[in-house]
Please model this.
Amino acid sequence: MKALIQRVKSAKVEIAGQIYSEIKEGILVFAGFDKLDEKHQVDKMIDRVLNYRVFNDDEDKMNLSVRDINGGVMIVPQFTLSADTSSGTRPGFSTAKPPSEAVILYDYLIKQINKSYHSIASGEFGADMSITLNNDGPVTFILSC
Model:
């Protein structure tokens, strides 16, 4: 599993011109599922995402997690994160979990993270989404499990 996390001042998802979800300060997480991913990778990623220290403390060092600042977490499915980009000029998707299986892991991710944290927003799997974000920093990391 891969997650691209961005520290944001705000973020929102729009579907068909309507606001679907939004957060204030926190992290925007784009989640991609690789072919061999299972629920235990999702569980590990939830722990990493909620505890990854990307916010500055009083000494201006990245020592605080989204939990520490009581920030929002937006999870957006991102199929293209699992693309094979190792050669050529066109991504290949043979390394990605098929959508019919990835949606099960995405739904599991949303369900489990809601048990662990109070301020969760999400995108919709398979939808054509417009994502608006105010990147803070910018601060962006790619996590793998």
